[in-house]
Amino acid sequence: MSLGQLFLEIGAVILALAFVGRAAGRLGITPIPLYLLTGIVLGAVMRLGDAPGEFIHVGAEIGAVLLLFTLGLEYTSQELRDNLRANRQVGLLDLALNFTPGVVAGVVLGFPPLGAVLLGGVTYLTSSGIASKVLSDLGRLGNRETPVVLAVCVLEDVAMAVYLPVVAALLIGGTMAAVGVNLVVALDAFALAFFLALRYGHVLSRVVNVRNNETLLLSVFGLVLVVAGVADLLRVSAAIGAFLVGIALSGEVADRTRGLIEPLRDLFAAVFFVFFGLQLDLGTVPGVLLPAVLLAVITSVTKFVTGWWGAARAGVQTRGRFRAGATLIPRGEFSILIAGLGLGLVPTLGPLAAVYVLLTAILGPLLARFDGQLAPLLDRRLREARTG
Amino acid sequence: MVKLEETQLPGVGVRHDFDGRFGKRVGVITHRDGRREIFVARRDDPDACAQSIVLSDEEAEAVADLLGGSTITRHMNTLTQDIEGLAMDWVPLAEGTPFAGRPLGETQMRTRTGTSIVAVMRSGQAIPAPGPEFGLEAGDTVVVVGTPGGVVRAARLLGGEG
Description:
Structural class of chain A: mainly alpha
Radius of gyration of chain A: 21 Å
Largest sheet of chain A: none
Distance between the termini of chain A: 72 Å
Number of strands of chain A: 0
Distance between the termini of chain B: 30 Å
Radius of gyration of chain B: 21 Å
Shape of chain A: globular
Helix content of chain B: 10-25%
Order of helices and strands of chain A: HHHHHHHHHHHHHHHHH
Strand content of chain A: under 5%
Number of helices of chain B: 4
Largest interface: A-B, 30 and 23 residues
Number of helices of chain A: 17
Oligomer: heterodimer
Strand content of chain B: 25-35%
Number of strands of chain B: 9
Strand order of the largest sheet of chain B: 1-2-3-4-5
């Protein structure tokens, strides 16, 4: 294939993304579900050649790595520790209410046990990207319920950091003994790396912190890929390696890196969603539609309850509780990431997760927007239920 | 004193807010990248922001200037305009002042700096024309009038440097 044709096809895909991104901006919703849809549509109408397909595949992997890296970069180790201490009750309720429906659904749908655990991860993780976008777009960062929403996201991200290496080890499979060894190695490697990142992160931060922006970008991007590569070779998830590099970087270097790497992440993350959509076979969607809708309804309620309860504990009134619940509903990037891990294991996991993410990612922000109209209705219902 | 509440917003920054005297919660969010966001809560829904304004680093400084020192500087300006060669200052008595618990006369303000203490502000109340036996306390604010140089000397003296 000629270079010209390669550019043409990749360019067309990226332009299509720009177009739906604009549409999303106009509608005031996040573009993530639209990127997925674009991928699905492109996969149905257009046959990409091998070379663009290859490029998009690698780009998607880089996107996953950068998503986790910037996630790690977001949090300082102090914030992680404080949050674990202050909000563990909400965190546990969140885990119990939102992980369980996925696992149960997986069992009901006849998934293998590991597939059910993956589906649990899909339904558990709120999209911190969508949630924080909703909060800042609607000017709600100063709201009283906002710290609760953010705390839930942080705790989920911590849980994700433990969950991913375990799942990655289990996915390699083999005999019981081999799985056990993989699991122990993965957890130990993760624990060691996590400890080192928390303990000696500042040393790394100082070494990496060069004055020149270009050199900083290259150092960090290179470091992230190298660590992700090593992690992958050690059969720990590449994304987890990147997450740990993000945790380790702190202070000034983290602030500068965030600004530099964000455009790169946005580009590759968009490619990641398209790739996921491209892989979907439209023919499989009708088969998963009903379970996806049911699962979306159930886990929207459970997420809503989580946020409601957390906000109530913080002394927030009905409207704020409603907003906290609604803001936590959308699932997004990490649900897709987890579903992507299990594609080989359970082929229906992909389309199920895609439809599920589409539904929750649209429903959550919509509900969050209309708190003023909807919360009083709910309030009246609750009062009636209590008195009657 | 306004009672400020501090809340960490993981991934965003820090929020400081207080319940304003006129029934609205007011706060400032300091974003990680240095942007400041000022907000006021809604009256009907005190958990939510009615309005928030994002300011850059420099804009925030300008607004702080506008809100902060302005009353005093404006007073100063009008005063010095009205009477040439006369200055007035509000000097807070910090914890370390040597005059805490001592009568005002012991400062010997007029002889040592050529200025007069015309009033003392204590817990929001003004005590005009205090006599020499008036007992000073840390936390008071002393209103000093005199030549511009004398006022500076008085501030130094009350701070324990003179």
